[in-house]
Amino acid sequence: MLETSIPVTTTMPNQSNSEPENERSSSQLKELRMVTARKGTFNQNPLLSTTHTITCQHCQHSQSIVYLNSLKSGAFEVGKAEEIEVLDSSMPIESSEMEKVTPIIINFVCKKCSYCMEVRPVSVEYLQTLIDRPKPSGAMYV
Ligand SMILES: [Zn+2]
Predict the structure, then answer these.
(1) How many domains does the chain have?
(2) Sheet of 116-119, strand order
(3) Measured in angstroms, how far is the CA atom of residue 116 from the centroid of ligand 1?
């Protein structure tokens, strides 16, 4: 019997279609973040790719951490989304709107005393803008 490979019809998600953000689960977000970090999307971001020093709140021992490494290894949690009020300064009339902010929580354990700390360097929404934004070098569109 012959096996014929039938092309599978996949429904491609429309890029311009704005799907509701809140339908994604935390695990999906985490997966997305890991994949994107591995692809090097965040390598140019100074906040994520440079070394930060964190001082233990318990024993004052200082350690360095690179947030990008934590994102790559998946050693982080996606926090609960919070609504915050943001001022939109781009509008002629000063207006404020509610914006959803989902913190990314990196658990940081002191190597000296094993004290566990939470670091929230960025939000999911912030990373999303990095993913969505075209490369600053531009000239991508011919
Ligand atoms: Zn410590």
Answers:
(1) 1
(2) 77-78, 104-109, 116-119
(3) 8
> How far from 89 is each of 18, 84, 93, 97, 102, CA to CA, in Å?
23, 16, 8, 11, 22
Q: What is the pLDDT of residues 76-105, one digit of tens each?
A: 999 999 998 877 777 677 777 888 899 999
CA of 65 to the centre of ligand 1 (A): 14
pTM above 0.90, yes or no: no
Examine residue 37 and state whether it is found in any structural domain, yes or no: yes
- Tell me, yes or no, whether 95 lies in a domain: yes
Q: What is the largest CA-CA distance in the chain?
A: 71
